[in-house]
Write a structure and sequence with these properties.
Strand order of the largest sheet: 16-17-19-20-21-22
Helix content: 25-40%
Number of strands: 27
Structural class: alpha+beta
Radius of gyration: 40 Å
Largest sheet: 6 strands, antiparallel
Length: 771
């Protein structure tokens, strides 16, 4: 075989052999370095010697093979993911606790990449700490002798500060401070292009909202959370009041929102005469026959500790109620900073205005963009406001007395000043994690799944945009300064955003509230009232179970030529058919040909028109049926009625149900000729309700009481299936087509029943009722 030339093949044996001494230039023999054996220079012989005869080489070879699998795996991983490893190292953004903080959630695998909004919040605290260090380095209050930093001079402090500013703070300077500021600014720009943290999905009928991996919530379950907090707060309040009755008449309570005297609140206003009410509760607590807080002139510390623990539970329920039942959700640190009275450096956050308890927040992160105050006001529902009133007037003041006595008993200073914060422990504000724990516990009990504060805030804002926002005519969505600006921007304010900021963060749209004036308060009251309606809580009046209360939502129009539609009644009887409009009355749907055959089962078929004499006049329901429906009605004058049991809207003028959303405006505009202010009031009334489509809603069960707002028809029902109709011809055609196994006499007439339907025409679906 001829030699092809090139570089000779290496076998790796030369490193273990040396030329044998005394051979001169002719290197014909070699000596093994490991065992010193001499042999002829030949590659095959040398390899055979190492593998079979050289013991040191065999021991070394076994040791190398023992480590080879680990080395191979490491080499494979390095060769496979070296580029990914370099990318992860290049993605180090900032530092926390002295360690690099990667943009990847798992720095080992790098399977999940952090968004800008997730990692840039770690930068702001570092910038804040560096700013403090910078100020202390520039103008130290005391000298640092160990490191050679003198105390700040009495003069030329501005010059010294400016000198260090140019060295560390100017953009482009070689300092970590400038780098972190630049990084945070870049992250804020990137965050505007990122999707929201949670993407909400809605069912086809808009009744269920989904998030995450299949988690969902029905709209009928959402109001139960606020009701849970309010119910628990009422029970705890009754326990802490010890049977003492305190009448709550918020309309007669006076308060000054501009009073800045230290220690002022509506409780200390002279006109209200509430400052000594807690003394009555203290006397009652000490003179009770059982469970008294004092006995024979001595405090009962065990009973006092139980009372204070119950007070803390009430405060937790109040916090949950303020967070969920008063409108758009505040940020946690904002609601935990609310004060019950004025302090030397800040104002009170709880007021009574226009017959409602409100809480106001002034400090907001949006202030940094305009350097103006951002006022956000939320109105408490009537039930929660009554609990808050009793808590501030009696329970909180008594608890402060007991805490002072307990501190004195424990040997601490009895003159300790109580914190003016509404939610505090030992003078310090509650931590945000406490509200998170309260909300998670409540959602688990009410909804069966834990929701944290962030997820619940996204849900509340998404539900507001879907179900609570006003239904209105087209408008300029970017107009927030003119007199005709959209009133719905108040939802953006109440959630703590400017319209543009809300649109960037949540994909939404929505004037800037920098002066707390009556007009702004009325706007916030309107927004809170819409929310109260959605969670089914009264805003002004606590409705008694047997009483009949009315709530007026909008002011009456003084123009006599327009029909007034403003009274919202929580008690309705049968409505009167009247139009009250000067235009010629149009034909009502009940006077038009109606689809006669409708089947609630699989045998649904088209009906044929019937004669007008087949339609009977609505009959008057008995008193029991009226009482069953009495508490499930909300009426707007004698124009429309909302049946809360089914969440449908019924037109009282033509006695038929109306399809929601655009169907409401279409019905009153085309059928009844409503327009202008009257139509706007109707749409305003319907905007706060989550309505269902009467064409697809589940029908009431057969044999139930008749709904007074709907007409009753004489009809026929098939005994073999669920087919029902109000026309005799249709029932005969049904028997002929289906061919049930019945007699000829039954085939001709069917079974006479009384029927009702939500809609007519092609959407008619009947059920049997009892007159």
């Amino acid at each position: 075989m001829t030699n092809k030339g090139g570089r000779p093949k290496l076998h790796g044996v030369d490193e273990y052999f040396l030329p044998a001494p005394g051979n001169g230039f002719a290197v014909n023999r070699v000596t093994c370095n490991l065992c010193s054996k001499s042999m002829a220079k030949h590659t095959s012989k040398q390899l055979r010697h190492l593998r079979t005869q050289c013991k040191p080489y065999q021991d070394l070879h076994e040791a190398m093979h023992a480590r080879q699998p680990l080395i191979d795996s490491k080499l494979k991983s390095i060769s496979k993911s070296s580029k990914d490893a370099l990318d992860r190292q290049a993605a180090i953004a900032t530092f926390t606790s002295g360690k690099p903080y990667s943009l990847y959630e798992d720095s080992e695998t790098g399977r999940s990449f952090l968004m800008a909004r997730q990692y840039c919040p770690s930068t702001s605290p570092l910038i804040y700490i560096q700013r403090l260090l910078f100020l202390e380095k520039a103008l130290p209050l005391r000298p640092y002798k160990t490191i050679g930093v003198p105390q700040r001079p009495r003069t030329q402090q501005l010059e010294r500060l400016n000198m260090l500013r140019e060295q560390y703070l100017v953009a482009g300077s070689q300092s970590a401070f400038a780098e972190l500021v630049s990084l945070r600014n870049s992250a804020r720009v990137i965050a505007r292009t990122e999707p929201p943290a949670f993407l909400l999905r809605w069912s086809d009928n808009g009744d269920t909202v989904y998030w995450g991996e299949g988690s969902g919530l029905r709209m009928e379950e959402f109001p139960k959370l606020a009701g849970y907090f309010i119910n628990q707060a009422e029970e705890l309040c009754e326990t802490l009041m010890l049977g003492m009755k305190l009448d709550v008449d918020l309309k007669g309570v006076r308060d000054h929102l501009t009073n800045t005297d230290c220690g002022y609140s509506f409780v200390t206003h002279p006109h209200n005469e509430l400052e000594s009410k807690y003394e009555e509760l203290l006397v009652r607590a000490c003179t009770m026959s059982s469970g008294a807080l004092a006995r024979h002139g001595q405090w009962r510390w065990k009973a006092i500790l139980t009372y204070l623990r119950t007070t803390v539970l009430l405060e937790e329920m109040l916090l949950g109620g303020l967070y969920t039942a008063c409108g758009q959700l505040p940020r946690i640190r904002e609601i935990l900073s609310v004060q019950k009275e004025n302090s030397p450096s800040s104002n009170c956050g709880i007021f009574v205005w226009n017959g409602s308890v409100i809480y106001c927040i002034r400090h907001h992160k949006a202030k940094r963009q305009t350097n103006k105050e951002f006022y956000v006001t939320r109105f408490l529902p009537a039930r929660l406001g009554a609990v808050m009133f009793r808590y501030l007037v009696c329970i909180r003041r008594l608890a402060d007395v007991l805490r002072r006595e307990r501190l004195g008993f424990d040997g601490a200073e009895s003159s300790t000043v109580q914190s003016r914060l509404l939610f505090q422990s030992n003078g310090a504000a509650w931590k945000p994690s406490r509200l998170t724990a309260i909300l998670e516990k409540a959602t688990l009990e009410v909804w069966g799944s834990e929701l944290n504060v962030q997820l619940y805030r996204h849900l509340a804002i998404g539900i507001t945009e879907k179900h609570v926002r006003e239904i209105h005519v087209p408008f300029n969505r970017y107009d927030d300064t003119s007199p005709n600006a959209d009133l719905n921007v108040i939802f953006a304010w109440q959630s703590g955003h400017r319209p543009l900021q809300r649109g960037i963060t949540y994909g939404l749209d929505g004037a800037y509230p920098h002066q707390l004036q009556p007009a702004l308060l009325r706007a916030y009251e309107w927004a809170s009232t819409r929310w109260h309606e959605f969670i089914r809580q009264p805003s002004k009046v606590i409705h008694q179970p047997t009483g009949q209360q009315s709530v007026s939502l909008v002011h009456r129009d003084a123009t006599p030529s327009k029909r007034i539609v403003d009274d919202v009644l929580w008690d309705t009887g049968t409505s009167a058919d009247r139009l009250g409009h000067k235009k010629r009355r149009k034909l009502l749907p009940t006077e038009r040909p109606m689809r006669q055959g409708a089947c609630t089962g699989p045998e649904t078929r088209r009906g044929i028109p019937q004669r007008m004499n087949d339609l009977v006049q609505p009959t008057k329901a008995n008193n029991d049926a009226q009482m069953n429906h009495r508490r499930a009605r909300v009426r707007l004058d004698n124009v429309l009625c909302i049946i809360t049991e089914f969440r449908i809207i019924v037109c009282l003028l033509c006695r038929t149900a109306i399809r929601p959303e655009k169907g409401i405006e279409r019905h009153f505009r085309s059928v009844h000729g409503e327009k202008g202010e009257a139509l706007k009031r109707i749409l305003l009334f319907c905007a706060g309700w989550s309505l269902q489509d009467p064409s697809t809603i589940a029908l009431p069960s057969d044999g139930c009481s008749a709904i007074p707002e709907l007409p009753i028809y004489n009809g026929y029902a098939c005994d073999e299936c669920l087919f029902k109709t109000s026309c005799y011809k249709v029932i005969v055609q049904h028997y002929s087509k289906v061919r049930h196994s019945i007699t000829e006499s039954d085939r001709r007439k069917g079974r006479a029943v009384l029927l009702q339907t939500f809609l007519g025409g092609k959407f008619a679906r009947y059920w049997e009722v009892v007159d």
